[in-house]
């Protein structure tokens, strides 16, 4: 089961999925407010924390009667999938986290990569003009400046999302603190970390590895925050060694 990151939709997995088709049952979905999802299903109270999104994954797992499924979460969905695995442990057997971060804001000796002021500025810019924020931010998040079409695709994906839901989801994403949840992840976990990533730096990947009991970290040669688009072969190869 593949869960996309912030501002994305299930199409972001289109280069990775073919490596697993025929051998695995593939489940793709859009978080509420993204892709072809029904935005009218959005409930601000439910989705005020990542738990609301995790509950949706559990609902899908129950509806499809999963038993021992493999969860793959990119970016914020890495932590969403982790929460889902704790809510319904019999439904999931392994977890793949791509570019995870349990907390984006620095806190004492913990280095999440951003100061509180930086996150506040990001959220203020996003709330004032979401379209401009998407156009300005997506290329930096994607990285790979020699392949500008990737940054353009991510910007277009951001712009397809419901802007009001996206604003709420950004605040939940960038202000969450799930560090205490990491030791509670009971299933074997693979962490895929890009060698350069302005959103989730290597230090964060190492922190996640050090705090999840049954985990291992693979540092990819890929750069940027979306290796599922920029380096799908490398992502699939790392996943195959685990699943």
Descriptive report:
- The protein is an alpha/beta fold and 243 residues long.
- It has a single domain, classed as Alpha/Beta hydrolase fold, catalytic domain (Rossmann fold, 3-Layer(aba) Sandwich).
- It is built from nine helices and five strands.
- It has a five-stranded parallel sheet, with helices on both faces.
- Helix 2 links the parallel strand 2 and strand 3.
- It is globular.
- 44% of the residues are buried.
Radius of gyration, whole Å: 16 Å
Side by side, the strands of the main sheet go 1-2-3-4-5
Distance between the termini: 12 Å
CATH superfamily: Alpha/Beta hydrolase fold, catalytic domain
Q: Give a quick account of the main beta sheet: strands, pairing sense, barrel closure.
A: 5 strands, parallel
Shape: globular
The total strand number stands at 5
Beta-strand level of the residues, as a percent range?
5-15%
Q: Percent helix among the residues? A: 40-55%
**Low-pLDDT sequence parts:** none
How are helices and strands ordered from N to C?
A: EHEHEHHHHEHEHH
Count of runs of 4 or more consecutive helical residues = 9
What's the architecture, going by CATH? Answer: 3-Layer(aba) Sandwich
Question: Structural class of the secondary structure composition?
Answer: alpha/beta
CATH domain fold name: Rossmann fold
CATH class categorisation: Alpha Beta
Structurally, how many domains make up the residues? 1
- Summed over residues and divided by their number, the pLDDT gives a mean of 94
């Amino acid at each position: 089961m593949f869960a996309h990151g912030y501002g994305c939709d299930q199409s972001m997995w289109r280069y990775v999925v073919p490596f697993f088709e025929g051998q695995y049952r593939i489940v793709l979905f859009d978080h509420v407010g993204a892709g072809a999802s029904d935005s009218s299903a959005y409930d601000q109270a439910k989705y005020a924390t990542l738990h609301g999104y995790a509950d949706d994954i559990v609902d899908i797992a129950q509806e499809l009667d999963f038993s021992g499924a493999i969860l793959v979460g990119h970016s914020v969905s890495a932590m969403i999938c982790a929460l889902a695995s704790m809510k319904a442990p019999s439904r999931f057997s392994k977890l793949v986290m791509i570019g995870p971060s349990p907390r984006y804001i620095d806190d004492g000796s913990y280095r999440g990569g951003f100061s509180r002021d930086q996150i506040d500025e990001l959220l203020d810019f996003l709330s004032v003009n979401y379209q401009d924020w998407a156009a300005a931010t997506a290329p930096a998040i994607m990285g790979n400046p020699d392949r500008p079409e990737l940054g353009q695709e991510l910007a277009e994906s951001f712009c397809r999302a419901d802007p009001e839901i996206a604003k709420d989801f950004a605040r939940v994403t960038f202000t969450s603190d799930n560090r205490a949840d990491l030791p509670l992840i009971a299933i074997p976990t693979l962490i895929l970390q890009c060698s350069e990533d302005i959103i989730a730096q290597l230090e964060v990947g190492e922190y996640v590895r050090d705090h999840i009991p049954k985990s291992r970290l693979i540092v990819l040669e890929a750069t940027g925050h979306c290796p599922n688009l920029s380096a799908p072969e490398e992502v699939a190869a790392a996943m195959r060694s685990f699943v």
